[in-house]
Structure formats: C-alpha cells, structure tokens
C-alpha cells in the first residue's frame, strides 16, 4: 500500500453533517502510474457520480488531499458496502478506496480487498473547497 494513502486528509464541500455510520470514499481520476488529461479525469468523475447516484441516495463530494504535497483528487463519499465499494473502485481503474466505519478510516486495495486502518476520520476532514 502506498504510504501517501495513510496521510490523506479530506476537504468537505458544503456544510452537511449527515454522515452515515459506514461509507466509502471512491475516486475516478487517473490511477497511479497513468497520466490522464483533465478532460479524461472529469469524464471518469462524472461517470462515477452517475453510477453512485444510480445505486444510493447518500452521495457527497469529498476531495482527498495530501497535506505534504498538496496533491488533491476529488472523490465521492457514498453510503455503500465495503465489497461493493471495492468492486466499483476496480471498475473505475482505481488502486484503492477508503472506507469509514464510525470514526475509523481505513484504506483497501480494490483487488484483493483488505482493509487497513489509517486512523480517525473526522480529524482529517476540513471545510472548504
């Protein structure tokens, strides 16, 4: 597992606080080792949003970022089970997804799925775009 996954923080867009007890954070931007254009990344992101909204009602924008490098990648917090989140992440060519249970943040490769603890989730959430 790439060490950067363990330092990720999240920017919350909007002022919502209706966090479910369990949810995934999934992105669709270019996976490690690939370089996509902005247009390709945005197209994949829109397709992921459509897929998620077609499955569940609770879908919120959440952008993961590195406090060390400032690299940021928009993603979606979604009230979906762990196995489904890993499958969707894999379908969108992602290396890993995040999964939150209560206030515990975990990260898992999409295949094979295996959740590794990262730390407290809420302490890593920041308001603003």
* Distance N to C terminus: 27 Å
The share of residues in extended strands comes to: 25-35%
Cross-sheet strand order for the largest sheet: 7-6-5-2-4-3-1-8
Mean pLDDT: 94
Assign an overall shape.
globular
Describe this structure in words.
The chain has 129 residues and is of the alpha+beta class. The protein has one domain (3-127). The protein has two helices and eight strands; from the N terminus they run E-E-H-E-E-H-E-E-E-E. Strands 7-6-5-2-4-3-1-8 form an eight-stranded mixed β-sheet, with helices on one face. The longest helix is centred in the middle third of the chain and has 16 residues, at 38-53. It starts with 8 loop residues before the first strand and ends with a strand.
Short description:
This protein is an alpha+beta fold. The chain contains 2 helices and 8 strands.
Brief descriptors of the model:
129 residues, alpha+beta, eight-stranded mixed sheet, 8 strands, 20% helix, globular
Give a topology summary.
Elements: E1 9-12, E2 22-27, H1 38-53, E3 59-65, E4 72-78, H2 82-91, E5 96-101, E6 104-109, E7 116-120, E8 125-127
Parallel strand pairs: 1-8
Antiparallel strand pairs: 1-3, 2-4, 2-5, 3-4, 5-6, 6-7
């Amino acid at each position: 597992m790439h060490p950067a996954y363990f330092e990720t923080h999240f920017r919350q867009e909007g002022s919502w606080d209706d966090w479910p007890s369990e949810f995934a954070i999934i992105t669709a931007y270019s996976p490690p080792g690939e370089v996509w254009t902005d247009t390709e990344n945005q197209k994949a992101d829109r397709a992921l949003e459509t897929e998620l909204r077609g499955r569940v009602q609770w879908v919120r924008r959440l952008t993961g970022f590195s406090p060390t490098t400032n690299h940021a990648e928009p993603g979606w917090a979604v009230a979906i089970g762990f196995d489904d989140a890993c499958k969707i992440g894999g379908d969108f060519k992602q290396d890993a997804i995040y999964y939150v249970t209560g206030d515990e943040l975990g990260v898992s490769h999409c295949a094979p799925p295996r959740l590794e603890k990262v730390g407290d989730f809420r302490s890593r959430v920041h308001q603003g775009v």
